[in-house]
Amino acid sequence: SSDLRNIVSMTFHKNADIDILVEGHTDNIPIKTALYRDNWDLSVARSISIVRILTDDYKIAPLRLTASGKGEFTPRASNATAEGRALNRRTEIILSPKLDEIMQLLKANK
User: Fold this and answer.
1) Closest Cα to residue 40, out of 67, 68, 71, 66?
2) Given pLDDT bands bounded at 50, 70 and 90, which one contains residue 1?
3) Residue 33 contacts residue 77 (beta carbons within 8 Å)
4) What is the pTM of this model?
5) pLDDT (tens digit, 9 = 90+) per residue, 58-74?
6) 15 by DSSP, 3-state: which?
7) Per 3-state DSSP, what percentage of the chain is helix, strand, and coil (rounded to 5)?
């Protein structure tokens, strides 16, 4: 979508000094298929799909990206309702500055 393209352009491309962590999450309903052994596998697959979009479609450098899965272990809402489970099936993008550059700035300002 054009909104996503604008976000990527304004945030990720203009701030090349920021690393991008993509976390996948699931609800707590167990899954076991030929493709996914469990919710942890599914959560990692969710994050990898976003990383692939960022690298393939938006040309974000792979070295800036990390894909991770949290499974059902960090819910955002209660898994007791369908609405809560839907909120827990998500990906999150976490931006962080490169720590080595921050350390150099801190040392320079002493």
Assistant:
1) 71
2) low
3) no
4) 0.83
5) 999 999 999 999 999 99
6) coil
7) 45, 20, 35
Q: E strands of 1-110, at which residues?
A: 18-25, 65-69, 90-97
Q: Are 30 and 54 a contacting pair, CB within 8 Å?
A: no
Separation of alpha carbons 17 and 43, rounded Å = 26
**Backbone φ, ψ for residue 87 (5° rounding):** -65, -30
Amino acid at the residue 67: A
What CA–CA distance (Å, rounded) separates 86 from 29?
11
45 burial (CB, 10 Å; 0-12 / 13-18 / 19+) is middle
Using alpha carbons only, give the angle 85, 87, 90 rounded to the nearest 5 degrees.
105
Sheet containing 90-97: give its strands across: 65-69, 18-25, 90-97
**Residue 13 token pair:** 């491309």
Structure-token pair, residue 70: 């949290």
